[in-house]
Specification:
This protein is an alpha/beta fold and 157 residues long. 43% of the residues lie in helices and 22% in strands. It has one domain: Alpha/beta knot. The chain has a 5-stranded parallel sheet with strand order 2-1-4-3-5. α3 packs across α5.
Length: 157
């Protein structure tokens, strides 16, 4: 199963890129993981929340394919433990999921249409984090999930 972390927003700071490379390299023996940045052209950038969400929706839907299993990250989503993430990944692999897409929406969230497209909605925390940090946290949790599934000593129950 391919794992793609889609994130609406700007390029990463160098320290975030370094952390992402670290976790993606550690995950590689188990499963490929990629980060896909979804950026609106500067001429379309707006502070109008509704307009921004619609423009981002269009960008996401153009990229979303039938073989994608979309999981939306949202502060109001279901809180899962790390072992539950691993369990979800195992279930997706058992179902024959070709590509798992974990979506980190834009600064204003996502449209109801994108929410409906998601097969699941997860939350990392009740706290709100900067998008770049969420990318790194998701990369670490993906690595942790695969280390759990492969009985690696990384995760200590």
């Amino acid at each position: 199963m391919q794992v793609e972390i889609w994130s609406v927003g700007k390029e990463n700071e160098s320290f975030i890129d370094e952390g992402l490379k670290y976790y993606f390299q550690k995950t590689r023996p188990y499963n490929p993981v990629d980060l896909v940045l979804l950026q609106l052209p500067k001429k379309l950038a707006t502070t109008d929340a509704d307009k921004a969400k619609l423009l981002e929706e269009e960008m996401i839907l153009k990229k979303l394919q039938p073989h994608h299993y979309l999981v939306l990250l949202d502060e109001r989503g279901k809180l899962l433990t790390s072992p539950q993430w691993a369990q979800q990944f195992q279930q997706m692999m058992n179902m024959g999921t070709k590509t798992l897409v974990i979506l980190i929406g834009g600064a204003f969230g996502v449209t109801d249409n994108i929410r409906r497209q998601a097969r699941q909605v997860w939350s990392l925390s009740h706290l709100v984090f900067p998008h770049q940090l969420v990318r790194l946290m998701v990369a670490e949790q993906v690595y942790r999930a695969f280390s759990i599934l492969n009985n690696s000593p990384y995760h200590h129950s």
